[in-house]
């Protein structure tokens, strides 16, 4: 009975199958692109009876300094996922406007739009997983927000910066372009943050979940010019930042916190190279170049390999791409155990 009362879009909606919803049982968890580092933080619980400010000033300044932008170009959200939802809610009229995205890519762009009742236009990536700019140009009618993920999840590749610039030029005065940089801390030189100076309709999504090892904190950021940030502030919840989130984020963005993050990124990038080298030696296995804390691997029988690892307590992530499995980069012990199992599986 209650389901019949729900909006039609919600009745028909298939929820995003996050790693935790899918489940699993084992001691090696390489399915959610989480960091293996469990860092310690100090918390002060003396002000829990008070609301925090909507956008805590010290926290915003700290991330702005790290990202190389002004404080007025930063909005903090409950994970980058809330940033996705805010952008759609702020710029798309349900029933009239559409978003556009390019699969294979992150699934929450589509689900956030569907939940709100906004049309979804799909322009698949080209075989090399770059933007099909011609097809995008042919599908921009009624599109108000375009989502591009770089490094892309689940493929791991970087989207050509030249193509992003072309996309920004073709959407000027037509749509907001959102570049999802959830994994950019593993390759900061590839960020498009410098393009904010030229394009007022550019928004960039960031998160502390990956390189900062704070997936459980649910802390994200949207970078954009002040006018776009002002629009998003109209639709954000009044108190989106819990006090413990503010305190931990400030510690993570401190000088010592940033130094620790950068050291851990180097460690994870080395482990990714270790996995790439080891898996690449197995006949029939194809490694796709990746720039995040994960890698996409094509196996001769991806579904069977995924099930075999799952049944043996090594939890990876199956992929919508045929015979491909996404493997998060864990600590060296987890990588060694995973590599050893896969090697033995194909012997």
From TrEMBL:
<dbReference type="GO" id="GO:0000105">
    <property type="term" value="P:L-histidine biosynthetic process"/>
</dbReference>
<dbReference type="InterPro" id="IPR004839">
    <property type="entry name" value="Aminotransferase_I/II_large"/>
</dbReference>
<dbReference type="GO" id="GO:0030170">
    <property type="term" value="F:pyridoxal phosphate binding"/>
</dbReference>
<keyword id="KW-0368">Histidine biosynthesis</keyword>
<keyword id="KW-0808">Transferase</keyword>
<dbReference type="InterPro" id="IPR015421">
    <property type="entry name" value="PyrdxlP-dep_Trfase_major"/>
</dbReference>
<protein>
    <recommendedName>
        <fullName>Histidinol-phosphate aminotransferase</fullName>
        <ecNumber>2.6.1.9</ecNumber>
    </recommendedName>
</protein>
<comment type="similarity">
    <text>Belongs to the class-II pyridoxal-phosphate-dependent aminotransferase family. Histidinol-phosphate aminotransferase subfamily.</text>
</comment>
<dbReference type="Pfam" id="PF00155">
    <property type="entry name" value="Aminotran_1_2"/>
</dbReference>
<keyword id="KW-0032">Aminotransferase</keyword>
<dbReference type="InterPro" id="IPR015422">
    <property type="entry name" value="PyrdxlP-dep_Trfase_small"/>
</dbReference>
<feature type="domain" description="Aminotransferase class I/classII large">
    <location>
        <begin position="33"/>
        <end position="340"/>
    </location>
</feature>
<comment type="pathway">
    <text>Amino-acid biosynthesis; L-histidine biosynthesis; L-histidine from 5-phospho-alpha-D-ribose 1-diphosphate: step 7/9.</text>
</comment>
<comment type="subunit">
    <text>Homodimer.</text>
</comment>
<keyword id="KW-0028">Amino-acid biosynthesis</keyword>
<dbReference type="InterPro" id="IPR015424">
    <property type="entry name" value="PyrdxlP-dep_Trfase"/>
</dbReference>
<feature type="modified residue" description="N6-(pyridoxal phosphate)lysine">
    <location>
        <position position="210"/>
    </location>
</feature>
<dbReference type="InterPro" id="IPR001917">
    <property type="entry name" value="Aminotrans_II_pyridoxalP_BS"/>
</dbReference>
<dbReference type="GO" id="GO:0004400">
    <property type="term" value="F:histidinol-phosphate transaminase activity"/>
</dbReference>
<keyword id="KW-0663">Pyridoxal phosphate</keyword>
<dbReference type="InterPro" id="IPR005861">
    <property type="entry name" value="HisP_aminotrans"/>
</dbReference>
